Amino acid sequence: MNARAAALLAWSLGGLSVAMFVASFLLWVLARSAHVPASWDANLGLVAWLAGVQFLIFPLVGALIASRRPRNPIGWLFLADGLLWMLTGMMDYYAIYGVAEPGSVPFPVGIAGISNWLWVPAVGLMGTYPFLLFPDGRLPSSRWRPLAWLSGAVILLLSVTNGLAPGPLDYLGGVQNPFALEGQPWIAGAAFAVFPLLPLCTLASALSLVLRYRRSEGEERQQIKWIAFAASVMSLLFLIGIITVLIGSYFAPQTWGSAENPPLWSKLLWSLVVLSFGGVPIAVGFAVLRYRLYDIDLIINRTLVYGPLTATLALVYFGSVVLLQRAFVLLTGEGSQLVIVASTLAIAALFNPLRRRIQDFVDRRFYRKKYDAVRTLEVFGARLREETDLEQLNADLLSVVRDTVQPTHVSLWLRDPAATGKPRAGS
Known about the structure:
Elements: H1 3-33, H2 46-68, H3 73-100, H4 108-127, H5 129-133, H6 145-164, H7 186-194, H8 197-215, H9 219-251, H10 253-256, H11 264-276, H12 279-289, H13 296-332, H14 338-366, H15 368-386, H16 390-404, E1 412-415, E2 423-426
Antiparallel strand pairs: 1-2
Helix pairs in contact: 1-2, 1-3, 2-3, 2-11, 2-12, 3-4, 4-6, 6-7, 6-8, 9-11, 9-12, 13-14, 14-15, 15-16
């Protein structure tokens, strides 16, 4: 396939994904308007729909990669995975609406049965092969070929057993799987036995990326940094969400609400967690296309600085508001708006000093070469204001350049005013 045909195919599949996403949104609106019993436990909230937004990023990034790098299978994997996610989302809302409103659409139970097993290849493709093949589309070595075959076999076997296992379908209030082999309970047992192999294959695939990073250098190392950064942010937000739920439900159950109706700030937090999953394909797109490849070091640096800075300032702000309000209540019997004003002014005063301290700590701990270079230049600048011996300044300047820039060779040429315009050299 030539480059033009590959680009046409890639963007056609990307457009198909967008069309299915629009259709799933319309079906989501219809499903929300239908009389869906609460016993079905159908997740029709805003966070559930936002999950579809971040999965739309997969086919769009896949189309971009496949059109620019058609020989790299990662783009086509993202396209296939995005199509599966868009298709399952559309089928789920179609089935919920069709079963809740009998006669509204044809074959809702059959569509639900197909969607019942499509999630397996969608999850499997996303969690295994992109890690194994990143960033150049090839396995790290031939020793990883058995894992690639095992991952494919597990995805296929789990798809078949899950699709044929008897039992009720999710979110449909006890409607049975129309494709199940009734009287064959061993199929469900086989699916249950095979399922643990899927996360194990995912972990092994991630391990291959870690080992590839340890052996890499130059551009390949920068590429792996992109996906590692996106995965770290996603994991951190997910951990924050879990901790928030545990703390809120345990220490403040009266303000937390029920599991079915959590507070608004919790919904916003989980929406952010869900959307962070879309950062992984975006990072892969930057890395594979090598667009702004070396900006990842700056992004990591700023994240290490402004992440703790934001958390510290938020903790100081809310802590000061709570403590000062309590002090005002004890002294005057009522709260005061001055507390919020004073806390805001304190945060504004703390921002720059705290940012500089955190930046200095990050540079010392994670960017030691940069920190040492900055310190060396500061010392040389102070010496430059006091030194009057030209020969000593020449030697100091050459030493600073060697220590900070680390060139293979350095020379300093100065014009001798006593000579006839001929410069002299020092190295």
